[in-house]
UniProtKB/TrEMBL annotation:
Protein name: Cysteine desulfurase
Gene3D superfamilies: Aspartate Aminotransferase, domain 1, Type I PLP-dependent aspartate aminotransferase-like (Major domain)
Recorded GO MF terms: cysteine desulfurase activity; lyase activity; pyridoxal phosphate binding
Cofactor(s) listed in the protein's UniProt record: pyridoxal 5'-phosphate
Function: Catalyzes the removal of elemental sulfur and selenium atoms from L-cysteine, L-cystine, L-selenocysteine, and L-selenocystine to produce L-alanine.
PROSITE patterns: AA_TRANSFER_CLASS_5
Record family assignment: Belongs to the class-V pyridoxal-phosphate-dependent aminotransferase family. Csd subfamily.
Domain Aminotransferase class V: start-end pairs: 34-416
Enzyme Commission number(s) from the entry: 2.8.1.7
GO BP terms, alphabetized: cysteine metabolic process
Keyword terms, alphabetized: Lyase, Pyridoxal phosphate, Transferase
Keyword Lyase belongs to the record: yes
Length: 431
């Protein structure tokens, strides 16, 4: 399996990398495809497609339950993939739980805490039990996947859900956070990077506030894992989630990182085969993590594909990837801010960010703007991006989001800026 010939110290050659992505070679509506929707889902290189194909055609078998050769090969590949992906985020293999994606990972945590509240699990699980009046703190910037599970957990337990506000420039209000996170705070859940604003949130400061009061921290790393080097244990978070399909990998696979003591104390959420020690007709014993949280048939092919995606990113060099995408973000901003009637969301001077901008076109609905861009072969995201409360905070119902990845080029950004400059005149909006 070939890999991009790049290292951490090498400037990323996006033009060369594009050759590894078959879908990027096509035209859309008579124009070369400009794919700027990686915040929703990334494209997949040949190396990832080949890894899944090789497994399915050479070693396909169920893992952890067979003594024949294919089963042993499949199990080795599956667990090797766990080691590869865990290492990518700085973790040990026993600290990585396979999930179908970040949404399941967040629901797993919320429902496990709910089960602890009901008295399920080992004695150590009691540390997670919530009482009426306990507080869960999220932020005003969260994706619905890191908001609704906490709403539901609060409703089931009598806990109170509170929110760290976002300032006009898109930064979290840390002074407000310091006031909100107090002695009744039991959980602090927040995104590493906003999927609307592209701003990297201050993890160290928020973790410090949570640790001061003994609160559990849960990080949504979906928009950071593909774009910057992560060391989750060093960041001090207790739990974190990420999705494979946003980081060059397959659909239906993601990871839940957890500190060992946290995972060992959490009771299971999904139950069934593959996560048990002994079973009688009346009760069961459960395996230690990560298997405790991996009931049923495993996502073997997707896990192997995600490991190939991680290897691809590592070979490209995450420092190089981040620097390349930050440069594209700067180029995008420079072009968009000069266009009359374009308003960027989260345009905070000096803020650390990834290669993502959301913007509003005055007088033109985001969906109309998106269709105009699509007619020119430019794929962007439109709507509230599963962050409706954040859009309401900025007084809009929808925005256009352009999000870059390692395979995007200056040409892509320039095509976007040029097309956006024609949106308002096309729709007859006076400037």
């Amino acid at each position: 399996m070939t890999s991009p010939a790049l290292s951490e110290s090498t400037t990323l050659d996006a033009v060369r990398l594009r050759e590894d992505f078959p879908i990027l070679q096509q035209e859309v509506n008579g124009h070369p495809l400009v794919y700027l929707d990686s915040g929703a889902t990334s494209q997949k290189p040949r190396q990832v497609l080949q890894a899944e194909y090789d497994f399915l055609t050479r070693s396909n078998a169920a893992v952890h339950r067979g003594a024949h050769t294919l089963a042993a090969e499949a199990t080795d590949l599956f667990e090797d993939a766990r080691s590869t992906v865990a290492r990518f985020v700085g973790a040990r293999e026993e600290q990585l739980v396979w999930t179908s994606g970040a949404t399941l990972g967040l629901n797993l945590v919320a429902y496990s805490i709910g089960n602890a509240t009901l008295g399920r699990g080992a004695p150590a699980s009691a540390r997670f039990a919530l009482q009426p009046g306990d507080e869960i703190v999220a932020t005003e910037t969260e994706h619905h996947a890191n908001l609704i599970p906490w709403q539901e957990l609060a409703a089931r337990t009598g806990a109170v859900l509170r929110h760290i506000p976002v300032q006009d420039d898109g930064r979290l209000d840390l002074d407000a956070a310091a006031q909100l996170i107090g002695e009744r705070t039991r959980i602090v859940a927040f995104s590493h990077v906003s999927n609307v604003l592209g701003i990297v949130n201050p993890v160290a400061e928020i973790v410090a506030l949570a640790q001061k009061v003994g609160a559990l921290t849960v990080l949504d790393a979906c928009q950071s894992a593909p774009h910057m080097r992560l060391d989750l244990p060093a960041m001090g978070v207790d739990l974190a989630v990420f999705s494979g399909h946003k980081m060059l990998g397959p659909y239906g696979i993601g990871g839940l990182y957890g500190r060992s003591d946290v995972l060992e104390a959490l009771p299971p959420f999904l139950t069934g085969g593959s996560m048990i020690t002994t079973v009688t007709l009346d009760e069961a014993g459960y395996l230690p993590p990560p298997q405790r949280f991996e009931a049923g048939t495993q996502p073997i092919g997707p896990a192997i594909g995600l490991a190939a995606a991680v290897s691809y990113l590592e070979n490209a060099g995450m420092s190089s990837v981040h620097a390349h995408e930050v440069r594209l973000a700067e180029r995008m901003r420079e072009g968009l801010v000069d266009i009359p009637g374009i308003r960027l969301l989260g345009d905070a001077p000096g803020a650390e960010r990834v290669g993502l901008w959301s913007f509003v076109v005055d007088g033109v609905h985001a969906h109309d703007a998106g269709q105009f861009l699509d007619a020119q072969g430019i794929a962007v995201r439109v709507g509230h991006h599963c962050a409706a409360p954040l859009h309401r905070r900025f007084g809009v119902t929808a925005s256009v989001r352009a999000s870059a990845a390692l395979y995007n080029t200056d040409t892509d950004v320039d095509a976007l800026v040029d097309a956006v400059s024609g949106i308002r005149s096309y729709f007859g909006v006076n400037e």
